[in-house]
Amino acid sequence: MRCRFSMEWGKVLVLAVALGLAFPAFGVSCMTESQMSDAQRTNLQQSAQMLGDNVKAANAAAVRTQTIAAVAAQFDGIANSIQTINSSIQHAALTVDALYLLDASDLKAAEETQFFCGVTGSPLTVEITIPALPPGKYALAILHATGVQQPQQLSLVLENDPAGSQDWKLAGFFTRPMTMGGHDGVWFWTQARDYAAKKQLWDAWFYYQTAQYLLDPVDFISSPNLQKLQREAEQARPDNLPGSDPLHLSSGTQTFDIVSLHTGELSNQLDLVVTYNATPNQDPVTARAQVTAVMRGLLQQHPELLTAFHGLWVYAATPGNQSPFALELPMGQIQNSVPPPGQHS
Q: Which of 22, 142, 158, 179 lies closest to 103, judged by CA?
């Protein structure tokens, strides 16, 4: 299924997306690898590689010793992420793909801080925006785990600890796949453009979203290329997606409230993942009938999904602590039960 990143930061501060909304703070700077001295680059590379190797080995205890105190005190989220990703990367080749040195030591207090890395206006320019950042020196290291069926990218936020030393410790940890369904983000971007040109906006939208998810290692980074991708996606955005209000989906004589739609993968094949509000306390037979009705209704209204996805994952969300009923079916099995347009199931 689609990976969800997890992270810890300082005193449980949250890194949120604020791209394009903040003005650069005075007294902060960013250096890319090419702008660093050899000593700075080597020190950061070694620190990031050591942390990455311990993540790859699923050695959460060692990672914790290399973590700032405030995050190490609440380490369960990172430990769980290390354990979850291990099966994908334990046999991977792990390399440091990018480094950014972030100097916020002149800040007077914790505040939202935007770093501009590289030459402004260049396609290689990177913007990094961190709210509530305390004064200090930080770094962002992006590692690639490749040579395996499901390559991954690991993003490490590092803090200079103790300040002024050569030591870098973990302050934030993020994971994200590099491919879905066997394809990378550039492939999904190209396919999304093709779908948009054919006015197959549902296919285009979800392929654009997948491209963005794969090409952006963490949600607090932006660049001219990523902004271009976002603009293209918005131009192809369908009108009837679920958001603050659910999507009302008719299937036969029933109507369902769809609350979430996104892409995911099962056995290296791309699915569309659907969550709807289900009636609580259903028996398994009734729950399966409802879920398959959701599948039929969605494909009847949007038949273009048949060729863009391997299948549908549908979750029947219920209130309280009930375990949701979930079912995945390939498109061929669902298609055989979908009535022609204009007929009811």
A: 158
pLDDT classification of 3: cutoffs 50, 70, 90: very low
Q: Is the pLDDT of residue 120 over 70?
A: no
Same structural domain, 93 and 111: yes
Residue at which a domain ends, from 177, 207, 223: 177
The DSSP output letter for 286 is H
**Residues 101 and 35 placed together within one structural domain of the fold:** yes
* Nearest Cα to Cα of residue 24 among 113, 147, 148: 113
Please, is 246 exposed, middle or buried when counting C-beta atoms within 10 Å of its C-beta (0-12, 13-18, 19+)? Answer: middle
Q: Of 155, 177, 199, at which residue does a domain stop? A: 177
pLDDT tens for residues 136-150? 999 999 999 999 999
* pTM: predicted TM-score of the whole model, two decimal places: 0.86
Q: How many angstroms separate the Cα of 89 from the Cα of each of 34, 218, 306?
A: 28, 18, 32
Tokens for 309?
């996805």
Token pair, residue 333, equals 């099995």
